[in-house]
Amino acid sequence: MKIAIVTDDGVTVSRHFGRAAGYAVLTVENGEVVAREIRPKFSPHGSAAGDRAEREPGPHGTGPGADLRHDQMAASIADCDAVICGGMGAGAYARMAANNIRAVVTDIDDIDQAAIEYAAGRMVDHVELLHSHAPRPATAAKPPSSANRESLLIFNDPPYEAERVLVF
User: Fold this and answer.
1) pTM score
2) What's the structural domain count of the chain?
């Protein structure tokens, strides 16, 4: 099984999918890492403000331009079963699924351990670490306490379609 892990140093899992330098691609067989390589990753965020992709209307990380950038990030790992990172936007998470790559958000730091845990089916997908990049209002009126509700974006198993649910 080939697993791409977002990394800046080839040793640790990066906490930001979009800003990471590249991928460590590990092949896991029988619970052991048998091959590894480092691959470049397209980065829409760039290394400086001038390198960053132009802002589209709507929430950051969504829309046709964002889909194209996420597809470019997926291109170099198209032969991988999954991509593991420490944090990513909901748009990138959904686009990886559209490219037949299972995105998983983890709290594991070591890339070897992350790959082995994923291959063994023991990795927890921390979707609570997904961020929407949606602009937040500076001030907002809170509903009465009896009506306090929060919405949560969840992703179902394949085809990983997003679903918004209300949490009381």
Assistant:
1) 0.69
2) 1
